[in-house]
Specification:
11 helices; elongated; alpha/beta; Rossmann fold; 2 domains; 214 residues
């Protein structure tokens, strides 16, 4: 994978840290948006490496964190139907409903399968024409296009046994509520993990631009 070695290069990492330290001239409170970002920051100890002037706080969370309990219950109810193969992302398997979760339901015999993309759910539909394939389409704005593409592709191929249980959520309304609060301390947002630029480079750029505007 391109850039994998660069991301794990300690010399480059130390150089980026020195640049961040030289950029930060005052205390900052930065918020990461999703659970994936939070996981990476904590897993690799980035929260402990950055200057003490930078405080990281957790944002709205990933779709796993914000999926309503009612949607999990609905997913389990659908999965209980014998004609259904329920497809979901792996991190949704342990999200609790009111009485159980998808992983426990799978252990009791429910046909629940996890995939890495909605296109894999389409493949299950192609291979099981006698079953109803229901894909749990969750996510923020970034996952909506891929989920929509799966629906479009299913219609194009005439896969009448493919459908989606949709639970999309929007980031801007949540951020608007948080940032407009009189108790808000957040001064900047972490860059999206899907950015073409380095997260560290974008954070440095954000700090510079915000500093100039103050």
């Amino acid at each position: 994978m391109k850039y994998l070695d660069e991301y794990r290069d300690p010399t480059l990492a130390q150089a980026i840290l020195r640049e961040i330290e030289a950029t930060v001239t005052q205390p900052w409170v930065l918020m990461e948006i999703c659970g994936g970002q939070n996981h990476s920051l904590m897993r690799y100890g980035i929260d402990e490496l950055i200057p003490q002037q930078i405080q990281l706080v957790h944002g709205p969370g990933c779709p796993v964190c914000v999926t309503p309990l009612e949607m999990i219950d609905k997913a389990i109810e659908i999965t209980s139907r014998p004609e259904v193969i329920f497809i979901t992302y792996g991190d949704m398997m342990r999200v609790p409903g009111s009485t159980t979760d998808l992983l426990q339901f799978k252990a009791r015999g429910g046909d629940v399968r996890f995939v890495y993309s909605p296109m894999q759910a389409l493949e299950v539909a192609r291979k099981n024409p006698d079953k109803q394939i229901v894909f749990f389409a969750v996510g923020f704005e970034t996952t909506a296009p891929a989920n929509a593409q799966a629906v479009w592709q299913a219609a194009k191929e005439g896969l009448g046994n493919f459908s989606s249980l949709v639970s999309h959520v929007l980031v801007p309304p949540a951020l608007e509520v948080l940032l407009s609060s009189p108790l808000n301390r957040v001064q900047g947002l972490s860059p999206q993990a899907t950015s073409a630029r380095s997260p560290a480079a974008k954070t440095i750029s954000t700090l510079r631009n915000t500093t100039r505007s103050r």
